[in-house]
Amino acid sequence: MWETIVKSTPEIVGAGIKYSIPLALISFVIAMVIAVATALARTTEPKGSGVAKSCFKVLRWIISFYIWLFRSTPLLVQLFIVFFGLPSVGIQLDAFTAGIITFSLNTGAYCSESVRGAIISIPKSQWEAAYAIGMSYPQVLFRIIFPQAMRVAIPPLSNSFIGLVKDTSLASSITILEMFTVSQQIAAKNYEPMLMYCMVAVYYAVFCSILSIGQYYLEKYTSRYIVNGG
């Protein structure tokens, strides 16, 4: 057993470093861009003419539909649609690109709600006070609202990132050679599926535990000016 573990560890961990971690990191960065953009669009009150407001309402409807769609359908189905379905309409993507697109859109939909909730948790009086002293919308957003909102959003966003790391195991279904795929291949050769699947579970647990520790220190850092948890 120990000989199998020693021989298999470099292959599994190597697949994690080469595919699983980059897939999760790249997807989460893109997902955060999507989340912030969509959350701002849903929390910002449009100004201007009736046409501008109508266009903004259409944009909000599109964003709401996107969030509903990706939160209401299984991630595995989404992966199959992007990788196996799109070629039927002339859109051919390699497995890694298809994985990034799917994971980014899926995680972005969930993170959007976390960011939106954090933004609306900030009292409107802070917006009003900032405007009263002559600050512009971008200044209010980046100097007053975002620093507070991100502190509130860190726990759910961290949970989404940890969930994304585990969800990368589904990438095996579209031929990406991440950790779970490699463990399956090794199990097919040595006929020890129980050992191999337990091993890969441990490695996922290690990665996620490291992220959880990082989350703890990030929360502690962003809350350093909070007195008595208030």
Automatic annotation (TrEMBL):
Membrane topology: Multi-pass membrane protein
Localization in the cell: Cell membrane
GO MF annotation list: L-cystine transmembrane transporter activity
Xref: PROSITE patterns: ABC_TM1
Keywords of the record: Amino-acid transport, Cell membrane, Membrane, Transmembrane, Transmembrane helix, Transport
Any one annotated GO CC term: ATP-binding cassette (ABC) transporter complex
Main location as per UniProt: membrane
Domain ABC transmembrane type-1: 17-212
Keyword Calcium: no
Transmembrane segments: 20-41, 61-86, 194-218
One Pfam family named in its UniProt record: BPD_transp_1
InterPro entries: AA_ABC_transptr_permease_3TM, ArtM/GltK/GlnP/TcyL/YhdX-like, MetI-like, MetI-like_sf
PANTHER family listed in its UniProt record: L-CYSTINE TRANSPORT SYSTEM PERMEASE PROTEIN TCYL (PTHR30614:SF0), MEMBRANE COMPONENT OF AMINO ACID ABC TRANSPORTER (PTHR30614)
Family from the record: Belongs to the binding-protein-dependent transport system permease family.
Record's protein name: Amino acid ABC transporter permease
Source organism of this protein record: Paucilactobacillus oligofermentans DSM 15707 = LMG 22743
